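Quick one: structure tokens for this chain, please?
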Amino acid sequence: MIFRIGLFFLISLMALSAQARDNRVKLHIDGQAIRAEIARTPAERAQGLMNRRSMGKNDGMLFVFEQPQIVSMWMKNTLLPLSVAFIDEQGRIINIAEMLPQTLDSHSSLAPAKYALEMNAGWFDKHSVLAGKSVEGMETAPAKTTTAKVPNK
């Protein structure tokens, strides 16, 4: 009996670990490696990086939208200062915005975006990444999103 419980626990941990790995994508911009968590559902996009206290120096979050559109981001309940790059369907950066923590200021793409990549504040500037640069590895990001409902807050 104890063996079965232990085996069940081990299999559950392995499944959770695989799921966590599947929720990340490796990207590159001008040779800089990025490990990005993927936010593909409305609920994941609404949660974003809220309430996170830290993030690795080359870690970020890639928001994936159903179709290219003007995208706006805000920092409600987000404790970290962030930079966001709005990215088109071909993986080119449209524009980059700096976002202060815990504000309701809207930061928008200047053209329809399929993706938004949030990184620690100043990351793009530190690596001389500007609008027009290509993000490599976007083909490994999910092409489709799911349409789960956003929970009421």
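Residues 75 and 103 are 5 Å apart (CA to CA).
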